[in-house]
Amino acid sequence: MPSKTEVTIEEKLRALYDLQLIDSRIDEIRNVRGELPLEVQDLEDEVQGLKTRIDKLKTDVETVNYEITAKKNMIEEAKALIKKYSEQQKNVRNSREFNSLAKEVEYQELEIQLAEKHIKEFKAQIEQKKELITATKEQLSERETHLKHKKGELDAILSETEKEEKALVKKSEEYEKIIEDRLLNAYKRIRNRVKNGLAVVPIERGASGGSFFTIPPQVQVEIATRKKIISDEHSGRILVDPALADEEQDKMQEIFDNLK
Fold first, then answer.
1. Measured between alpha carbons, how far apart are the two ends of the chain, in Å?
2. How far is the C-alpha of 226 from the C-alpha of 9, rounded, in Å?
3. Phi, psi of 90, rounded to the nearest 5 degrees
4. Are 157 and 149 in contact (CB under 8 A)?
């Protein structure tokens, strides 16, 4: 490959078109992957979210079970107090003491009723949470299966194209180094702006590649001389003649075949 210095206009055009062919091939590979990497990432996030939800629900169940145990202990303590107060009532000296103990017994009985009510509510909560755990586990299983399928698709594509893509990216960087900064910046600016990332295109049927705007015959002749870098006045794309394009396509296709 020529260096940046002392290169002809034709060599600059060839280098630019070669870079375009390389970058277009990288685009093709990435388009094959499409939205798969994002889909896989979204599914991984969703799976992790479902696992976190299940863990939280399990923790909630443990917390409620702890509350049930606490209420049951409280009931046992209340029963012990009732027994104690009932025994004390047998040995009271007056009605005031008897009534005071009776109120204590009544209070403990109410505490038992309230605790039993809470236990019932807690058990209902546990059943509800267990149902949610079961439903979430089913959803998790379905999402994990879908994720496995999508990862399989992505891995298959990557195994076919990853080596080629890395080699192409390296090749693109090599070509960028031999193109003068002004032209390279123009190429990148056009590439980011136009459809399909095509910044350098050949003339096809008298028009700029991918365009319906006819290029005047005298401009076509001038492009074919390869003495000037000429852009399409409508799209801004850099234009090359068909013969040069064919030569570079054949050359680059051989390089691409060797990269696979």
1. 21
2. 6
3. -70, -20
4. no
Check if the beta carbon of residue 213 is closer than 8 Å to that of residue 232: yes
Rounded distance between C-alpha atoms, residue 27 and residue 252, angstroms: 15
Q: What is the DSSP string of 153-204?
A: HHHHHHHHHHHHHHHHHHHHHHHHHHS-HHHHHHHHHHHHHSGGG--EEEEE
Angle between helices 95-178 and 9-33 (to 10 degrees): 150
Give domain limits for the chain.
Answer: 9-32+180-259, 36-160
The CATH code of domain 36-160 reads 1.10.287.1490
182-211 pLDDT, tens digit per residue, is: 999 999 999 999 878 999 999 998 888 767
**Per-residue model confidence as pLDDT tens digits over 43-89:** 999 999 999 999 999 999 999 999 999 999 999 999 999 999 999 99
Q: Enumerate the H helices of the chain as residue ranges.
A: 9-33, 36-89, 95-178, 181-193, 217-225, 242-259
CA max distance for the chain: 129
Q: CA-CA distances (angstroms) from residue 145 to 34, 40, 136, 152, 212?
A: 20, 12, 14, 11, 48
Do the beta carbons of residue 170 and residue 156 sit within 8 Å?
no
Q: Could you read off the pLDDT of 144-173 as tens digits, one per residue?
A: 999 999 999 999 988 888 889 999 999 999
What SS3 class is residue 240?
strand
Q: For residue 234, which phi and psi values (nearest 5 degrees)?
A: -90, -45
